[in-house]
Amino acid sequence: MDKGNRRNNFGKWLIFSVSMLFVIYASFLGVLVLFGEDKQATLTSYRQEYGERNEVIPNRYTYLFGYEFTVNGKKYYGTGQKVGSPVFLKPSPESTISIKYLSFCPYFNSHIEGKKNWKSILIFLAVGVVLFRFFWKM
Q: Against a cut of 0.85, is the pTM above it?
């Protein structure tokens, strides 16, 4: 096996691995949206990341947040991010967000934003399928 062929195989398997990660993540989000339990989680942290986003729409910022929730007396934690306006209001200790978690394994949880999740799931799935087709054609 020559060196060029090995490099080609590495790239091929890298594309395959990345495509499978996209498909697995989309599947996870789909299962979470379809079968997840709804819960209100308490925000534990909320902060702005970096400066203004370099996008067509001005005055948009990325915010990172952490949350905790309790299931059967045990605390679980999660993190997330969202894009929002420049108005940065520090949340109170009683601030909550809507999350979904899998009842048999609450470690798998995510912040849910309604229809945006279905768009994200379809985008991740489409990217995974396109990358898999590249892998298949190589």
A: no
